[in-house]
Please model this.
Amino acid sequence: MRVVVIGSGGSAESAQRACSSYLIDDEVLIDVGPGSFRNLVRYFSGPLKLKYIAITHLHGDHIFDIGALLWGMALAGRTEEITIAGPRGVKNAVNTMLAAGMTPPDLLKFGIRFVEVKPGEEIKFGRFNIKTAAGKHTIEDIAYRINDACFSGDTSPSDELIKLFNRCELLIHESSGISEMEPFLAKFGHSSARQAAMVAASAKAERLVLSHIPPALSSSTRRLLAEARQVFKGALIAKDFMEITI
Model:
């Protein structure tokens, strides 16, 4: 299984990073943050290979490019149905964005199947087995375990997520700040690099990739990495277009 980091930034785009988005075997896309559609098109010839989209939560930095993606699929001639899964309200959020963008009624010549996922529910995307758990964020966040790759979404440290991530081969975990910011991050349901590493160590994950890097830290990630590696040796910082094989 190949995981490609399409967007590694958090909260807003930076010059170096699109916002959160991860591609699995060219078929499954986790989150569609701002800038991710352009990166996706740069990574492969077009969006027609995608079959499934899984949204962790409905904050804009994780969904704002979904309208651009659906328009891009339509203009590329897509006719095959696509599945969009996510927390409660995902159908309304996507349809609202399409309506706000004045999407012509006949533009999308393919169906959208919406699946509202309850935390803890298990679903299946074709050959991909998916387990879920609730993250600790300011709105409902769903963390995904897809086969043996895990994606935290936005979350404070959580025992429930440690259970979901248990002995996974790859954990892509948000990393929104340094250790001295932890009281501030907790108010907004985020984790520091150190806390992400603690979760990975507790879950006995094989590999940890720190993502959701905010713009203020986008070009200076040494401290994030140093603090994480004090807890989880070998932790890496995500970069757009990073490829990971598991």
About this structure: Residues 2-245 form a domain with the Metallo-beta-lactamase; Chain A fold (CATH 3.60.15.10). The chain has eight helices and 14 strands. Helices lie at 36-43, 60-63, 66-75, 90-100, 159-164, 182-187, 193-203, 222-229.
